[in-house]
Amino acid sequence: MPTISQEYKTALRSVSVDLNNDVSLLIDIPDALCERDKVKFTVHTKTTLSVFQKPEFSVPRQHEDFIWLHDTLVETEEYAGLIIPPAPPKPDFESPREKMHKLGEGEATMTKEEYTKMKQELEAEYLAVFKKTVQVHEVFLQRLSSHPVLSKDRNFQIFLEYDQDLSVRRKMPRRCLVVSSRTWLKSADEVLISGVKEVDDFFEQEKTFLLDYSTKIKDSTTKAERMTRAHKNVADDYIHVAAILNSISAEENTALKKHLDKFSDMFEKLRKVEGRVASDQELKLTELLRYYTRDIQAAKDLLYRRARALDKARLKSKDVAQAEDNQRQCMQKFEKLSESGKKELTSFKGRRVVAFRKNLVEMAELEIKHAKNSVSLLQGCIETLKNC
Amino acid sequence: MAAERDPPPPGDAGQARFGEAEDGEDLFVGAVGALESNPSSPEPASLPAEDISANSNGPKLVDSFLDDDPDDLFAEATEEVSLDSPEREPILSDGPSPAITPIMAPRIDSTLFDQALEEEEDNGDTFDICISVSDPEKVGDGMNAYMAYKVTTKTSLSVFSQNELSVRRRFSDFLGLHSKLASKYMHSGYIVPPAPEKSIVGMTKVKVGKEDSSSTEFVEKRRSALERYLMRTVKHPVMLKDPNVLQFLESSELPRAVSTQALSGAGILRMVNKAADAVNKMTIKMNESDAWFEEKQQQFENLDAQFRKLHASVESLVCHRKELSLNTASFAKSAAMLGNSEDHTALSRALSQLAEMEEKMEQLHMDQAYADFYLFAELLGDYVRLLTAVKGVFDQRMKTWSKWQDAQLMLQRKREAEAKLQYANKPDKLQQAKDEIKEEIVEWEGKVQQGERDFEQISKTIRKELGRFEKERVKDFKSVIIKYLESLVQTQQQLIKYWEAFLPEAKAIA
What we know:
The complex is a heterodimer of chains A (388) and B (510).
Chain A: H1 6-12, E1 25-35, E2 38-47, E3 56-62, H2 63-75, H3 94-105, H4 112-145, H5 154-161, H6 172-195, H7 201-251, H8 256-316, H9 324-386
Helix pairs in contact in A: 3-4, 4-7, 6-8, 7-8, 8-9
Chain B: H1 13-20, H2 24-36, H3 49-55, H4 60-66, H5 71-84, H6 88-94, H7 110-121, E1 129-139, E2 146-155, E3 164-170, H8 171-185, H9 200-208, H10 213-235, H11 237-240, H12 243-250, H13 265-283, H14 291-341, H15 345-422, H16 427-507
Antiparallel strand pairs in B: 1-2, 2-3
Helix pairs in contact in B: 2-3, 3-5, 9-10, 14-15, 15-16
Domain PX (chain A): 19-166
Family (chain A): Belongs to the sorting nexin family.
GO biological process, one term (chain A): pinocytosis
């Protein structure tokens, strides 16, 4: 299975910006292996911190290990006031695998060339999914390493360093419980958060904004996915058209032969450009939206935690005197949470705006580049044909 | 080859031909006569027009049903004359020789036909006719409603009475025209341009009055197809001179072509004949002595298969591009909502701009999808139907050969019967029988000769038709390929404009 070269990775690192700059803790995923359904990531750490045993080391990790780390952080009460970076989504090779299967079934109906080209396209798609999942796991770790508080988390350090199979440390049953209780809590949270009376203007605004924005961005992600998929379909059609034109041209013995040759050639060249347009759009637009849908959810989670804390603090006030101490504690927790929450949400907005700007600019520049390339290819072809 | 009168002045080809046509008979004959008088043909150009006219009916049974118009009389008349005319005798006895019959109106000088071909070759400077189909209008209500189209002919050809003509026609009129041309010319090996296909679903929507985009698209698709059909028909030098075509383009009133309805008597007969033809095709095993035909037949079979595949792929492309357009529109709306929700001012504005731009993209993609369809897909669709007509002429040739072979078989049987009579011993009846059989033998000898001539004629016609077809195909495709590539260029250039307008907006996010 392919490994990822450095240049690809720098090209891919688009959704989050300015991570991995702190020399004291540098993390990356230089390598990944795909076996059947499982992807094995090689997590590589370079550090100057004394808390680690060695200055440089690598460990193999699976997707489940990342989830364990994420969930552990979420459950840590200390971090209630922080936005925990969203967990990377599970590697999903379903789409290219299904397409590969369909291609295999349809092999008899196409020419050998057509089949080879389609296969290449699918292999490229497979590779793209692979690269994306590596990137997304990497960004998760880098968000942690660049966070002043989270980077010091003991579990995080274990994740980076522990050179044996983490699944031994992962308490499986607990994780399942966590997952199910989380989903239940989510719906309760929605009710809570909309019902709770807000004392702070800042949080009131954030709440309104985040609730609305998260629905909208989820929708935009879906629509962007459909748009890129349609684009890919057009590029695939170009392959078929080019192949058939080629066969017709091979048997053509009139003055049309040259035209058909060039026409077929043009479709072949154009499909490559269209394919790049689709994948660039996927990376810059769709992936951006996807990532921030998850990130917005993480910010919402912060608000939920705060709402729960507030609720807890208020609840206690119903009990009489002996709970006063308790109440004070809860209030303190709440206030600490609110303070750090405010900071986190503010920096989150900044991050989001910067990422959007970077990606939208890059997407526009790439689209212009591809379109100019298409124009020059087409005009060259038209010139040749007119002089034919 | 003796011509009955001096060839009319070259520049006035149309006039000459039309002038001769005092009655339908002559016009038809004259036109065909011109076609066959090609000096480059190696065969003795002795095939009088009558041979063609004899064949114009094909199986008599079919014609009498299909030709339910004045032409019927004409068809019958020609056959009778050609068989019984005393002039046939010299033809039979002298072998292949130029023969003039009373039917064959003044022979058109071959140079005129060549001129017609040259005119075509000059990219139609003198082949000046332009037909447009426009202004679809719904006539009537409910299930009896129909669409009427305006057919405008702009031409300087003198075969027409005016330089600009305009009539209103409905779809069944076009089908009627095609039906007449097919029954007249197909047997002789002419590639008659096929008419656009019927569509029960499409028309029902229109009849019922569904005013949505799918029915407007359907009407536009049909309008465009009808226009292309007429242009192809008039580009054919023989079709152009046909009175049916002229009547179609000129007459304000046209008798309703009822025999084109699928469930009419004629329609059912058509289906029966199609089935009969299919069976015949399987049973006739022709001895192909001409390698050229064998090669061509194979070539066109291959081309047909390939074109069908290509047509399917391009239709898929059209479909996906339309999908892309719709998904882009959907995304644009979503991005607009996201922009509204965004609380960072500059980002909010940029997202709104993105949404506006994507809306423009939606239209751009849709426009490209229309170009994909009308330039590329429809051309391929036309050619798939044309290739069916081409395959049809090969079948006609086979049928002609088969008729010839059957005549030979019959002749042989008659000769055998005659021989038997020689040794019969019924003296009283013998002389009568001998006379009868002698007459029959003469009849069948004539039919055999006719069959051979027909076969040679159709082979000659097909060669010419295929030559013409290939020329047209090359021209059509060369032109469409360039037009299509230009449409792609336009789309891409517009794309650049849109993205270049958006870029500063994206950079302005601060």
